[in-house]
Amino acid sequence: MDKRAGVLAAVIVVVAVVLIVxxxxxxxxxxxxxxxxxxxxxxxxITTTTNAVTTIRQGPSTTTIRSYQxxxxxxxxxxxxxxxxxxxNFIGWNVSGDGFGSAPLNITFENSNAVIGTQSNNNYTKTNxxxxxxxxxxxxxxxxxxxxxxxNLTSDTFEVTEPYLNFQIASPQDNNIYVxxxxxxxxxxxxxYNTFSANNNNYHAFMNASIPIATLMCSNVSIRVVxxxxxxxxxxxxxxxxxxxxLSRNPPSIRTNPVNQTILGSG
Length: 267
Description:
By secondary structure, this protein is of the alpha+beta class. The chain contains three helices and 19 strands.
């Protein structure tokens, strides 16, 4: 009886193992196939694993971020609420101070009222035209040629579902003019630009810009544009013009690089 009982017990164990493998094995394989994703972003390869970390490798540097399998967008570009100020007002944004005025600037209206410049063959041409912008409205502290008072512009919070924040900007290099990414109200990145020099001192030409935010994937963040300056006749070009914000899987192929970009926090 003891020998038979031992054989029976062994058979039961074997059957149980077979059943467990048959039931769990496909599920493990299925979970694995669903939880691993590889995305190529230009020269950057991002490999994502659920409940793990994601490692970005580009050149000699390595940055480790959280997994974002659950929040990566199904499309390569994601609009931000009123990111191009297409409503003609600051809906979706909080305005602090008077620097940005009561509403975004209408590029058609501004260009129609541009300064009449030099005469050529008895025809006057307009100067100070805004160029390079993709939309109809943009935020700016340029008010009649002078930034009369400081101002901040902060977006509503949004989830980071793509690794880049793209936008357009016209700005001088100034320690008091920059773009921040905030998480829980705390700055995570701070970026300074100088499109004036890049455009041969064309103060009204927009350029594409991009901020890498892969370390903030799946986090809720906001954008803050800081213009803590007051212009004088001698420094009347100390203004910022900005707009066309959106999330993207890639930065623009042609873009201006920040003069200085600081990573102040982590995701």
